[in-house]
Amino acid sequence: MTDIRSWLILGRVSNLSTVWSNGLCAWILDGGEDTRLLVVMLAGLSLLYAGGMYLNDYCDVDFDRRFRPERPIPAGKVKRSTVLVAALGLFAAGLGCIAWAGTGPLFYALILLGVIVVYDLVHKDTVLGVPLMAACRTGVYLTIGAAGRGHINPLIWGASGLIFFYVLGVTALARTESTSLKESAAGCAFLIIPMIGTLYLAGPPFEDLFPISYCMAALWLAWTFSRARKSGKLILGKTIGPLLAGICLIDLAILNSMHLVSFPVMGLFLAFFLLALIAQRYVPAT
User: Fold this and answer.
1) Whole-prediction pTM value?
2) Domain ranges within the chain, ordered by starting residue
3) What is the 3-state secondary structure (H, E, C) of 80-113?
């Protein structure tokens, strides 16, 4: 019988709180009126995320047998065919949740699902997988944005662009984690773009809470790379999990740059951030 942890590893569930962070950020940018709608949308997006991760391992089985034999499928802990069925079931359930919110969010969710599937099919064979993964996070913003007032406001488009570049950087670095490819300097550069963007949007003059959230994000990036060095060499595998958790801090900085953060809101994003870090101790982020 398949153990539950294998399924959690397949779904990379330690990253789910970063999806919730993206969704909450978009919801606040849209006005944040219907909490019940937000919960249903986050449930649907979580199911799409987990389904995408299952499909990822289904498609990557040959790669994993060579480079990551500890993954559940090559390790014989889960049948490959069962993973595919589970992925399809999660996709259907996720779309069902989002359809409840209306045709607008369903339209963007279908596009998001298409991007997820294409990413899973091609990401190991082409560099196109890097922007496709980043586009998945943009899709979370747009799907939530379409569920509120029926249209996506400019703030959501701008925020989704900033998170796109951050995830673009993380994904570019992650491509080197299990192979002999050289470290991606472009990946490091992409991480800086949302930091510059939020600083530009915020002012000056700066709102009281902005320096706090901005410094938390900047210091987390600096600490992540400093602790990942061993004998002067950067060990990329040690940066990916913390950088993924850092999505929550980037979301917070984006919101704060648009003057939409209070102490309770800041507490929620920090809770998502800490939840990701704690979960990564038990379930690998990649």
Assistant:
1) 0.94
2) 4-280
3) HHHHHHHHHHHHHHHHHHHHCCCHHHHHHHHHHH
